[in-house]
Amino acid sequence: MLNVNGTDLFYERRGEGEPLLMIQGMAGHSLHWGEPFLCALERDFELILYDHRGLGRSAPHEGDFTIADLADDAAAVLDALEIDSAHVLGISMGGMVAQELALAHRDRLRTLTLGATYCGGEGARFTDEGVVNALAGAILSGDPERRVRTSWEFNVSSPFAKAEGNFERFSEVAALYPVELPTIFSQLQAIMGHDTSVRLEQISAPTLVIHGTDDQMLPAVNGELVASLIPDARLELLDGVGHLFFWEQPERAAELIREHVAAARA
């Protein structure tokens, strides 16, 4: 555990190489990265994994927070581990956190990878109302199986959702550390207040943006917008892939990050 900003955060270090700080999305903890993706990355990086406040194996948390607060948590994790700078990967809400980290702590980033994320502002598109209603109904139903199944079906492409064994692996991870409703609502409130659109031009870290074209949680237009607003950012669209692109194409996602880091070094 690391005590940062008044709360205890679970963390893990694995792999060898330059440090890669990995920031999870809404309701996601460090196990939600999936072993195939982590194994593909740890061959080249020392992975710095942690759970957001109030989630996973971190301490319970009461009260609201902002995306900027979560970015300060991420910086504090690096401080506590005595890591001056790291490559940073943020997905979904974690991508929003990574945006704020890159803006407020720009000297801490070697490279930035933003996956399936959102910046707010003109041209951004939040989750469609029908998807939001279906997810809300599942969350409020009190039925854990319905909640996980509904989340799964909207977070990956239809072919991947139906393929044998995929849901079983995801549900096993989800069952380990169920997320409390107050934490979900606090994260959602933080997301709704997020808007970095007019500030993204200030990001100086070499940036890669990855987005699946079949993302139902945050449509791919958001990835295109983010990439257009960050100077010299590279956009990689994964055809037919959903929100959790690192579950659907773990080797490809890891390869893109390796290529991005290598290009930045060159």
Structural class: alpha/beta
CATH class assignment: Alpha Beta
Work out the count of structural domains.
1
Q: What is the H level of CATH, i.e. the homologous superfamily?
A: Alpha/Beta hydrolase fold, catalytic domain
Strand order of the largest sheet: 3-5-4-6-7-8-9
Residue windows where pLDDT falls under 50 for at least 5 positions = none
Anisotropy-based shape: globular
CATH architecture: 3-Layer(aba) Sandwich
Q: How many H/I helices? A: 11
SSE pattern, N- to C-terminal: EEEEHEHEHEHHHHHEHEHH
Span between termini: 36 Å
Average pLDDT confidence is 96
Biggest β-sheet, characterized? 7 strands, mixed
How much helix, percentage-wise, in residues? 40-55%
Q: What's the alpha carbon Rg, rounded to whole Å?
A: 17 Å
Number of strands: 9
Share in β-strands = 15-25%
What CATH calls the topology is Rossmann fold
